[in-house]
Structures are given as C-alpha cells and as structure tokens.
Design goal:
The chain is α+β, with helices and mostly antiparallel strands. The protein has helices at about 5-40, 55-70, 75-90, 115-120, 125-135, 145-155, 165-175, 200-210, 230-245, 245-250; strands at about 40-45, 50-55, 185, 215-220, 225-230, 255, 260, 270, 280-284. Keywords: Membrane, Transmembrane, Transmembrane helix.
Length: about 280
Amino acid sequence: MRKGFSHGVVAIGVIVVVLAVAITGAVLWMLNRTRPLVLTERCHITTPRGQLDLEIEQASVASTIAAVAARRKLPERAVVIAYATGLQESKLYNLPFGDRDSVGVFQQRPSQGWGSAAQLQDPVYATTRFFAALVKVPDYRKKPLHEAAQEVQRSADGTAYAQHEEDAKILAAAFTGRVPKALNCWFPKPSEGPAPKAAPDAARKELVRALGAAAASATLDAQGTRISASSSRRGWLIAAWSVAHAQRYGLRKIRFDRLAWSADDGQTGWRDDTKAPARHVELT
C-alpha cells in the first residue's frame, strides 16, 4: 500500500524550496551588482592615504555628498562622517528598500520624519537632511566618528560606523577636491545603437542642485559647458562630480587645470592638456 508524506515532511520540503529560491535570488542580485565592477565599469580612487575601487553608482552618490557639504560650507570631517554612515547603511548605494521603511543611501525612515520615500531616494535631499541633523550634534567635529554618526542615525549598533572611517577619509580626500585628479572612471560605449547624446548643460543643472548657484556656467558652444571654479579645490570637486556622472549624462571629455579625462580611454586617467583652463571645468 502506497504511503503519503507526513505533514511535517511536506512542511520541511516547502521551507527548503523557499530558502533555495531566496538564496538563488540573492546570489543573482549580488552577481548583477558586482559584474560591471569586475568586467567593464568601475571607478578608482588614488590618494596618498590609499586607494579604493567603486561602482559608478557609488561614485555618483559620493560626489553628491561632497557637493552638498561644499554648498553648506561644512568641514571635511562632516564629509567623512557622512561617508562612513553611508558605507555602513547602504555601501553608498541609493537603495529603494531597507529595514522596515528605510530607504536611500543613509537608510532614513519616512515614519521617523526624515521625508517621503521618494524624497529620501534623492541623494541631494537625503544628504541635505543628514547634514542638517549632524550640525546640531554638539562638538560633532571632535567626537569619535561613530558617536557623531549614531547621534544622527539612532541605529541598533552605533559602533559599526567606526569600521569605515579609513575608507571614508580616502573618499573625502578625493571627492572634496583636496587631492587633485584622484578619481578615474570608465565604462563601455553602448553595444547597440548610437552613443547617447552628450548633455553637459543638464549635468551642470544637476550639479547646481547639489552644489548651489556657485556652479555658474558659460556655454562654450552647442555641445559644451564651462563651470566656474573659484579655487583649485572647488574645481577638482566639480571635476570629480563630473567624472562620476559622465556615463549618466553622456559626457565624453572633462578638462581642468591643464589636465583632461576622456571617456574614450577612461582607464588611463587624467592626461596632460595644456589648453585645459585653470578657472573653469569644461564638460563636453
């Protein structure tokens, strides 16, 4: 006589199948996130303090954080705290999900009054809110990093932010413009169809949203935009932001301070260009 499976065996089988599907999905998601970094798309930072590899999305978010800090005239320590927080909370990805209703690079929660989910997935808005909270922390510049970050985030384990301090300092040196030509990104041309039309003025307008009206411009011609740089450091901040956003806006060349980055050979980094201006960053 044929015997049926017990309810317990069936339940265990269902659990195994569900776990297998979940694990497979997680592995595929991770492969999809890491594959471009390994094969065709990446950013690389080189500073006297050390080197880091990033995905383009991470570089884009990091450059936005530095621009918002510059607009608010915040010290580099504030940027370091923001980077360490973002690395712990999201690995500097602009996540559309998180624990409970947390979203965005800082995993801020709409239910805790940070803003709507849509607002918090805008890195400019999320960073602005983060810094608005950070500057209210007494002596945040002098506090241990994890204590300052925890007073903003109120997370379950505030000590976790400390492990990212060294990487955060490398990021800050590059994206604030303190270390010139520190960021280099590269990406392939589209495999099908024409390359996207360069939109340098659209890039400038997005930069203005983060950096403020100081990112004034004078159009070079129908294809290029020139952005004012009041100092070498400000120029390299703008240049790093532009390289990090080059793929999004179809930028092919960025020039500043006798150097140029080209999307056609991005892996070679910044090259000498005697015609590159010292007081403006040119985007084409």
